[in-house]
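SAMPLE LOG
Freezer: B-3
Tube label: C17
Construct: single chain, 295 aa
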Amino acid sequence: MDAIVSTWALNTAAAAGCNSFTTYDTPSHDRTPLMQGMPGAQVDDFPEYILQPSADVSAPQMPAGFELPPLKAHIFRFSPEALASLKAAAAAFSTHDALCAFIWRHMTLARRVPGAPASAPAAGNDDSSALAFAVNIRGRTSPPLPPTYLGNASMLSMTSRLSVSTLTTDTGLIQAAGAIRKSLKALSSPSRVPLTIGLLSSRPDATDFKLAYNAFLGPDVIATSWADLRIYQSDWGSLGTVQSFRTPGEGADGVITVFPRLKDGGLEVTVALEVGAMGRLLEDEQFNKVAQLWG
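STRUCTURE (predicted):
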């Protein structure tokens, strides 16, 4: 995405006569490293997938009288100081790990039915939760894909399932951050990408493998991060530079979206939840000590 935005900005500036247009970059279209998988993969080694052939799956039926609950998204700002404090409190390897662990934990708390005991399940009638997030694999293929590769070079990383009681204890933040780092380390193995490609290629229909998370009105959370998208550094010629990054509002639940890093080093994050859970998140004093409601 960074390559798309930077090329877009350069060509917009060129159209205004500020510089020359970008040239065709042949390596950016070479997807050879994504075409050859490694055989021998077992689905049990990939927590992000389950084997569920389409022929065996009937269309989900909503209960009679079911009505989709209202959904709500808010933007929260995390200052550089808050991010540093979170990283220390989570004993985390990275700010990303700490931030996602913190929000995942508090979304799980917010999804609990009011008055339920600490061990009670969150949304989806499940007593456990997992965090799934998209990971850029351009540098994880062999040979690496060029940073300017325009295709969808990403894979899903998914944590092990943590019990709701674990996530909501005083040590929940540390354990959540540790689970995130463990899942990322597994994806960093040199064989992980070719084994994943091999797994998906092992069936005549790759869609027999379904993603294993259940975030929408379920117990899990899905996250994506654009923190390293250099949108605020791009020069758009006569249009100047980007002052604020936003996405269209839409109904979602169990979603974390980290926006491009601000010039002061802070981060804006969209959190989407069912409206009742969102109300409880907004009343969470521990969450509000760190996250500033921004929009």
